[in-house]
Amino acid sequence: MCGWELGAWSWPLGTGRGGGGRQGAEALAGIELPATGYCLLAVLDFRGLLRRSFADVNGLIEIVEAGMRGQDGGGGSMFTRRRFLQTAGATAALATRTGWARGAFVPASDRITIGVIGWGMMGPANTKAFLTMNDCQVVAACDLDKAHLQAALDTINGHYGNQDCKGYHDYREMIARPDIDAIMIAVPDQWHAIIATTAAKAKKDIYGEKPLAKTVFEQQAIVREVEKHNVIWQTGSWQRSLPSFHKAAEIVRNGLIGDVTHVEVGLPG
Prior knowledge:
The protein folds into two domains: 4-97, no CATH class; 108-240, 3-Layer(aba) Sandwich (Rossmann fold). 42% of the residues lie in helices and 14% in strands. It has eleven helices and ten strands. It has helices at 22-26, 39-43, 46-50, 57-72, 81-97, 122-131, 146-160, 171-175, 192-201, 216-228, 243-253; strands at 4-6, 9-11, 33-34, 78-79, 112-117, 136-142, 166-168, 182-185, 205-208, 233-235. A hairpin with a 2-residue loop joins β1 (4-6) and β2 (9-11). It starts with a strand and ends in a 16-residue tail after the last helix.
């Protein structure tokens, strides 16, 4: 499965694994889904996707499948939005009981180890979000700029109260570490493809800032490596899943502001 978007929700690259959550399910309004192969998409967020241990996933799948059998008496071929959201609620309850909820204690052996590359605009924001999650730990930071790298290390090690996060100026040295599960990429656009493909070849799961890459050729190269090495990719277009963005789209699509005759889009550069 390659990366694609449905409504306002981004589906990650990879095979057999997907991302979602309450906002992702809400984005599927009005869409009918096949009755197989989607249940994980409803309940796992980026943290869950990166988890190396899937001990609780079978339980989640069983609840989803039981809900399907209970509502259609034997497994219908289509799954409506209402049933999708109802089942997502049930699986969310299980996630809370099994310790997937944020704030639950997670042993160090079960945490996702993350290396962050880039400490400019989005790098700090993404990393600070990781620092709030008990089921992951940022263990490495990389930036060419000495001051930026030091700021990253001060932020990360200051949060954990130790000096365990190691700094790098060369992303290749960091990606080569076998103890790192996932990489966050927040660097200038022209570096996205080379870093992403290197990380995929090293079998690291990847969160990459948008755009995917500068050219279609570079984007296709990322897709090939992600699929070849069966790793998880998520592009940082999560804003489109926020309730405020959904509401704005709903207002415009329902004609509440009248006929749209002019649209302005602002992008860097």
